[in-house]
From TrEMBL:
Statement: the UniProt record of this protein carries the keyword Methyltransferase: yes
Protein name: Class I SAM-dependent rRNA methyltransferase
Organism: Candidatus Viridilinea halotolerans
A Pfam cross-reference name: Methyltrans_SAM
Residue ranges annotated for the S-adenosylmethionine-dependent methyltransferase domain, each copy included: 50-228
Keyword vocabulary terms for this entry: Methyltransferase, S-adenosyl-L-methionine, Transferase
A single GO molecular function term of this UniProt record: methyltransferase activity
Claim: Hydrolase is one of the keywords in the record: no
Amino acid sequence: MPELHLLTPPPWHDYSLLATGEGMKLERFGAYTLIRPETQAIWPSNLPASAWQQADARFAKPRGGDESPGTWLQHRPLPEQWQLHYDNLAFWVRPTPFRHTGVFPEHSAHWPWLRQQIATRPTPNCLVLFGYTGLSSLYALSCGARVTHVDASKPALRWAQDNQQLAGLTERPIRWLVDDVGKFVAREIRRGTHYDLILLDPPVFGRGPKGEIWRLHEQLPSLVAQCAQLLSDRPLGLLLNAYATNMSALTLYNVLVSALSGRSGATSAGELALVEAQTARLLPAALYACWSPSSHPHEL
């Protein structure tokens, strides 16, 4: 019977979750503190209102729902972008009209495992699907992998390339592709291409560069099954993240086990969480499932 696990990121010098509660989260990104909506944080805040009021900027929810752009209410001027660092990686933070900053700190909970897998052989081939601003792609690149990064958004890919330049990784082997993930994977299967390591971070809903529709609940099983076909004869792993609040980590586990039936190895699943600085309270951030060809699951 599967066990669900809870993963938290290693401590960051440049990032901290300062407080949560009442539908909000207060975060420090380098020298600036931001307040963003957080639907999971339905509990009372442990910080007084005065502490929240000292934040540098607050994201105001759009009237048209999450698909509409919102506004950052600045209490002191924010730069258009500023640098953050993690380990040997450098990247840009940019407050966007859709509340995101280009950084998902919870992803770093996977990075020690990623480094460990890549270190087992010289220059393994790594495929990153729905790669967004490229932090996991660049971390894999910095660890010695050869990376193929696929995302449907041209602005996100340009942001990822800016991060590559900032991190000093422009001489490392990476392919940047603006493409519909489903179409790309199907082409790679026809070409007979294989990858040692595959990372997926799909949204609940998305559009490809030519208007292709992506719906997580409908298309995830077939996409993961196709990704299993892309794994090499000596694979290092397949890692899946998801942000669907109406989906269980067991769902991801079952999808991954079904796709990889017949392959030996270990599959684990659970939640990614951020640790609130003062209280150590955990904020749920994402779901994940991970398959590794070794007998040791991701957590060990």
